[in-house]
Each structure stands twice: as structure tokens, then as C-alpha cells.
């Protein structure tokens, strides 16, 4: 069954956000909630509601896989979004 | 900012090199800042949706990238004062992460900007007459030129003056604010093309006619991206006084006939190709003839007023030869090596233009820390009349340095690591931010550039290889101009993985050429080995004095392919 997380950018500063297990958003990818199969649709809809209240923009789903160390985005692009620019270790996101 | 400014007198003052704003210009910038402040407020309150706000933020150079907002600040034709550079350093320190990224458009980008702080940033930039207007959107973008503008020994005219005239003409031009697509103009003040003019929507090359009178050769329809095209000449010699009228004519034809139904066919290069160069030129000439010469005439007096607004450095009368310089070259081999690549001939005896490399070995091409920017500003004030240029190759230039001062200047560049003697060599790599930062990218550029830089770190080896331009773009939009690199590298997405296509034989100069594809895309870790093999083949085949591009042109792509196949 495909597994996804929900991501967006925070409106006021553009920071990358992940939909958290307890609802709401987190800046930390390790705290992102996985949504199996069709459950992603409701999560995306919940994310879109926060677009309408000016919290976030650009809500979309990201394919992930479960690894021994936790969830990992499948694409290079999303791995960079989850961890920070690969060329600046000093900018790595906390918990990445 | 309109042409009426031309009639106003020179501002004068000690600062030379930059165009001096007056109160009208500053009032305009202040209005634009407050307008954007109000727009940001409406966005944050929800009065504007993102769809409504996006074109407004783009008009002010604000993009949403992979990790944050990115602010692209215009550096008109790559010219900065020390005071302006210090402000950029301060913006980096106060609002970003202590650095900025100089681009192939001679601009600077800040990668970690907060929307809510952007109006304050723009207000601070306006304090030193800098803005981000028209750094995005389907309008005429920052006019680019030669990084040795106002200093080069071979200069026929000062391109800053005409670039400034084009800037004033194109800023808020009511007819050209919503073109079919973005529009880029490059202009060079000598017959040697140092601004890649044939790869721009309009390219302007200065040359003298048979009577020795300076004028412009006009090229149109050049561009890179997914459809790379070398521009075609539509006017061999245009009188200087007709420049604006001719630009207006080209833009009118494009604005009326350029395609708006297909994003990928909207650039002028497609219009020129589909219309045919001859017919397109005829349409421009017809439009040109219909425009009033009086309205757009650049009379010598008008040009002189603009020239005066730049101020003129008070050069000393010096001998051509500097014994201080010659002694330092003889005594210090590292300095001698730097002088071989990082200096450019100056029009005034006893002076040189010094290029500051933003390509340290293994570094990020084009990045400068706030401290480095501050130091360059101080050095500019001390050694170059406060003048700085940004090169489209992502380096900085101090245009007017006494040859006597070059050795102490170089010594001061060493501490912060911006003294690398590699201008025009294999590690002077042009690279876009790529997938590490850019929302459009398919693959990373910077790590590939770093790997090549580390592979060829030995400066003596680089100097032995000689002039060699490597350009790396992270997607087909070609921000790093990979099509015109002697060695071009394009990052692609190959079944979800980063991969890199290599091209050979591109060139950006007056003999502009598009690179030819060497083979199928390869993984990042194989790129340095392949570049090494390509260079090895060049070294084996070159004749004395032959540059990489010369050898490539002489022996052709087939021999490179054959040699690489044999090695595998």
C-alpha cells in the first residue's frame, strides 16, 4: 500500500512544513504523519483548510517509504526538503 | 525613472561608477516599497489569495523556492558601489544566513528570506538606490553587460551609459510590462563579446563603421533554455542615436506577434525562427521607420548627461610599467600565478582590472559571505574608487586598481579565501543553485561543481590545461548556460535519479556555439572521471598554444567520442 506524508510551505516565512500526527504542522520531518493508501486524501483536505486561513501554501503529498531509521522520502527533491541543502551541513534541519 | 530623468543634472559626489539617483528616483522606489508592504499585509491577512499575490511578489523579485522565499535583487548591468555592497552584506547578515549568491544575470539572490520581512529588506535596499523591480515576470529584465565596463582597454563606448538608458526606458514601460514572456538584453562596449550577447533576446555589440564612427550591431532571438538558439544579426550597424528607437521597434513587433498561447513557444527566439530572420528584420525596420526619431533620439548631449551621472574616477598619470608590480611578480610565484588569470587590461596606463574569484577550490560557485562582501567593499574603496562589477561568470571585479597596488590587494584577498588564481580555468565553474535550492531543478549542480573543482584542485595543472569553461545547470531552463560551456553539464531526472548529460564545444563569445551531446546521461559520481578523460584527450591532441575550444573545433566531436569509447 502506498505511503505518503503531506507537505506545504508556511506562508509568512516560506519554511517547509509537514503535516503532524496530532494534526497541525511541524517543521521537523521525523514528526511527519504517514498516511497509508486513500487516507492521504483526507489529510490533503485538512491541509487545504489551512491554506484558506493563511497558515500554509502549496499543499501536496510526498511518497515515502519506511526504513529502519524511520520514514524517508522517495525522491531526491523531497529528501533535500526534509534534510536541508546537501551542500550546507550547517543548514541541516533539526532531527534530519 | 522615465526618460525625463535624462534632462536632470549630474548628482556628482565622490562615489563614481554607479548611476546617481536623485529625489525623483528615490521617491519612486519609496512608493514601490510601500505599495509592496501594503500588498504583503493584504496577503497575510487573507485579503489576497496566493494566486492574486504571486504576480505581485514576482514583480518585486520574490520567489518561493525549495526551502524558503528567495529574493532576487537587481544589480543594474552588474555595477555596484562599495556602499551598496556593504548593504548587500548587511541584508545577508540580518535577514538571511550570512551570505548571498551572485548569478549569471549579474544579480544577487538571497535564499532564506521571510515574506513578512521583505518590505523592510526592500526599504533598506532603497536606502542605497537598489531594488528588485523587474527581476522576474514577463518584462524586460536587468540589462547585462561586460564586467569590465568603463575600464576595458578595448572599449569603444562605455556600455554602462547605454545599459542605464535602456534601464530607464524599460522600467515600468507601459507597453512592455506584460510581454508574451521574459525578455533579456545584453550589451557589450567593445567588439569582443564578453556578455554572451548572441544568447539573449536582444544582443547589442559595439563596433565602428567604415568611417570609424561607433555604432551597434543588433542580434535578436538568441536564448538558451529548452530550445537553445544563437541570435541572428538583423542590423550590421545602427547609429548610437537610434538605439532606443530600434529597441522600441523590436519590442513592439515581439509584443504584437509573439505567441501567448504556449509558454514554451512564447520567447522571441521562436517568433524569429517561425517568421524567418529576414522577414522579422523587415518587420522591425518597418516599425522603426514609423516611430518618430525625435521622441527616441539619443542626441550626444543627452548621452553626455547620463554619462556625467556616473561620475568619473580621477585617474593618476602613471607609467604603463610598475616596478613594484614587476618585483612582486618576480618574488612571489603564487602572486605571479594570480596575475596570469585574474587581471584584465585597463584603458588607463598604470591601472588594471582585478577579478576576484568566487570559485574557491571545492566551494559553492557564486556564493559570498557577508564578511567577504564587506571586505570587497573596503578594498573597492581603498583601491578602485569605490567601484565593483559583478561578472556573469559569478565573480567580482575591482575595475580600476593601480598596478602598484595589486600585490597588497592580492594579499588581502588571501585571508578570506577569495584569491584563487583560476579565472577562465576549469575550476571557474558557472553553476546554478540546482536542486539544493531551486524549485524548478531536476538535479543538483553544486555538488557536481565541487567534485570537479576538487578533482582539478592543483592550480599548476589548471594553468597547464588553460582556458576552459565548464557550466552546470540543474535543469533545462539553463540558468548556468550549460549549452555554451566548452564543457556543458545538464542535470536531468532519469527514472527518479539524478543524472548528467555532457556537451562539448559550446562557446559564449563572438564565435558563439551550442555544445554537442557527448552521450547518454551518467550518474554524478562518474562526471569527474569523464571530464578528466575529455581533458586528457584534449591535452593529447592539442598543438602549442591551442585552447580546449580550438582543439575541439579542429578535431571535431567524433574524435572525442572515439577516444572516450576506446578508453572504456
Low-confidence stretches of chain A: none
Instruction: Please state the structural category of chain A.
Output: alpha+beta
How would you state the average pLDDT of chain B, rounded? Answer: 95
CATH topology of the largest domain in chain B: Sulfite Reductase Hemoprotein, domain 1
What's the total helix number of chain B? Answer: 19
Which oligomerization state do the chains in this entry correspond to?
heterodimer
Strand composition percent of chain B: 15-25%
Give an overview in words:
The complex is a heterodimer of chains A (96) and B (568). Helix content of chain A is 22%, strand content 33%. With 96 residues, chain A is an alpha+beta fold. Chain A has one domain (3-86). In chain A, strands 1, 2, 3, 4, 5 and 6 form a six-stranded antiparallel beta sheet that branches. The longest helix of chain A is centred in the middle third of the chain and has 13 residues, at 39-51. The model of chain A has no long low-confidence stretch (mean pLDDT 96). Chain B has helices at residues 23-45, 50-59, 82-95, 118-127, 159-170, 243-257, 268-275, 277-290, 293-296, 300-309, 323-331, 333-341, 370-383, 406-414, 446-455, 459-465, 527-541, 548-555, 557-567, and strands at 62-64, 69-73, 79-81, 99-102, 108-113, 144-145, 185-188, 202-208, 214-220, 232-239, 343-345, 351-356, 367-369, 387-390, 396-402, 430-431, 470-473, 487-494, 497-504, 516-517. The termini of chain B are far apart. The chains are: A alpha+beta (96), B alpha+beta (568). Chains A and B meet through helix 2 of A and helix 1 and helix 15 of B.
SSE order and pairing:
The complex is a heterodimer of chains A (96) and B (568).
Chain A: E1 3-10, E2 16-19, E3 25-26, E4 35-36, H1 39-51, E5 56-67, E6 70-73, H2 76-83
Antiparallel strand pairs in A: 1-2, 1-4, 1-5, 2-3, 5-6
Chain B: H1 23-45, H2 50-59, E1 62-64, E2 69-73, E3 79-81, H3 82-95, E4 99-102, E5 108-113, H4 118-127, E6 144-145, H5 159-170, E7 185-188, E8 202-208, E9 214-220, E10 232-239, H6 243-257, H7 268-275, H8 277-290, H9 293-296, H10 300-309, H11 323-331, H12 333-341, E11 343-345, E12 351-356, E13 367-369, H13 370-383, E14 387-390, E15 396-402, H14 406-414, E16 430-431, H15 446-455, H16 459-465, E17 470-473, E18 487-494, E19 497-504, E20 516-517, H17 527-541, H18 548-555, H19 557-567
Parallel strand pairs in B: 6-7, 7-8, 16-17, 17-18
Antiparallel strand pairs in B: 1-2, 2-5, 3-14, 4-5, 4-13, 8-9, 9-10, 11-12, 12-15, 14-15, 18-19, 19-20
Helix pairs in contact in B: 1-2, 1-4, 3-13, 6-8, 7-8, 11-12, 15-17, 17-18, 17-19
